[in-house]
Fold this protein.
Amino acid sequence: MSTPHDSPTTGPARRYVITGGPSAGKEAIVEAIQRAGLPATEGEPAREIYRRHRERLGRHLEVGDRREYSREVLRAFVDEYSAHKTGLRFYNRGIPDGYGWDAFFGLSPYPELEEATRIYRYDAVFILDPLSTFEDESDIVFAKDREIRRVHELIVQGYYDAGYEPVFVPADDADGRLDFIRANLRLPM
């Protein structure tokens, strides 16, 4: 007897978010997901958009720049969500991440974010517990060590506020975290 999880590319669309604050290990787990042959986000759209803004501005984002950046990231997330039609897919961050990052910048939710959060729903959200080390050789993340925890908490709160009951993935190496996620979703190992 087959189950909807026998093939990651068939059946109805199933969408799973991998998220967490800076230093949570999102990039490593998404790479592990891809190595396992499971469909996942290529790169990190928010990071690429941030790079473009930083290059154009010649500096890190400031509060006054944040709303434009947030809207551009939202469009990228909605486009990625809408393009997925069948089978499962893992997303490197999801639409409700915007709540956490906007709150970090002292901004209130805006109508487009609230509407997108209602319309585009994920099947499960996996929040990676922060790792004990933080490295970002590319200097893309600009949160200071003490702010990393706060951003993480705000992202978590954003998912709760959006009506999700996230699954917390304990700190581990990427393969261990993938095993945890697969077991939770009852995906074959």
Observations:
- The CA atoms of residues 62 and 141 lie 13 Å apart.
- The beta strands are 14-19, 88-92, 124-128, 167-169.
